[in-house]
Amino acid sequence: MAFITGIATLLALTGLFQSPPPSPSPTTPPATPPATAPTAPAPPASTAGVSTPTPPRSNEYVTWEKPRRYDMTFNVGIHSLAVADPRRPLLMPIVLQGASSFVNLDTLRAEVQLHGERIDGGSGPELINGRGIFEEGMIEAPTGGLTVDPNVLNQATQLRFRVFHEAICYSSEVDEAALQSIPWPASWPSQARDALQPQTLIESDNPLFANVVQEVSGGDLRLVPPWIAAKELVRHACNTIQKNGETTLYGPGRSIRGLDVNGALVAAQRGSGTPNDLVCVCVALLRAAGIPARPVIGRGEDRKGKKRLLVWGELYLPKAGWIPFDPDEIRRKGARHWKVRDDWTEFGTMSDLNRRVPLAYAFAPDNGQAAYDCYAIWGWSRLESMDFPVPVNQWQGRIGEQRLRVDAWNTPSVLHFEIVSHGRVDPAR
Q1: Residues 6 or more apart from 338 whose CB is under 8 A from it?
Q2: Is residue 30 a part of any domain in this protein?
Q3: Least crowded by CB within 10 Å, which of 2, 90, 93, 371?
């Protein structure tokens, strides 16, 4: 793989290379996740192991329709190299084959810049040299040898990571009666089992969630189909978790830093949280009930064309596959008096799903351990700071004996998104 092959040479010329151990091979498997994390499959041995994404396939339960094409550019500006392990690669997950989307692998492009100078880049399927915990593709861009240059620290963007790809996204429509006919399986298929395990921000093994499942179901969870049980639990979460905050975590001047998320347990204990927290609570409850579920983090546009970060959920049912739902929209539309055997908008049927580009199934790679200064989809090494997420007004840290304190006008990282809609398309062309 050619991506970033010249980084060590260029870093040596800029004085930032201090004889580190060899950079990891692009095919080196990621570190073993914590015991409570879903087990991540090993990355493919070569780029030939990356399967070609295909359009979602409709079935008797879910119809995928009205595809739209998007060009997606994801830019990360990194202002400080004061991280715990600068030899770790930069990480960018991409949902190559989602329930509601697929990516044209030939359009993939990525590059890394250091102090405005292009280090190296690449394109095509060879960029996918790792895997996320739910089979996302992962770009792993080696950065071995980075150290802090005090002359430029936090005075300019030191690293910039840019990824571009084209995605086709679909709307969904479900057959409510057909989904209600699906019984509880004797066991879940392998592609869904990881979505039954706890992960960072989704503490589904905490007794609090098992107790809520018991309370909502009255102890009779398995007496109703899993689809009905899922609707009961999501409705309960939407009715009990009050909205407090936004999806996006902003820095000074409304610059985008990442996602404002505290996690399922904190939100459940407080009784309030951001839209991201509500998704975490719903996913935790479904997993505690034995129904596979996962968060989906992406970028999209509303019907007025406004671009924004978006977080929603998916649950899995046998034969139907992954089915989308949007708890924040369900809460906004007032689900308190909705009947669970009726059709629900934003639960299965989502007409605007074709305006959302899925990027990841976790709020940061490596089960959250690779989050830099906040949860922001991408990852590297944790910033050496006193707090995480780093406060937006000020952050501070220590590098050896040197103590750093940086004012808010220059946050540790900034995200820049570009999403261009090409409208409805014919995927067969």
Answers
A1: 235, 344
A2: no
A3: 2
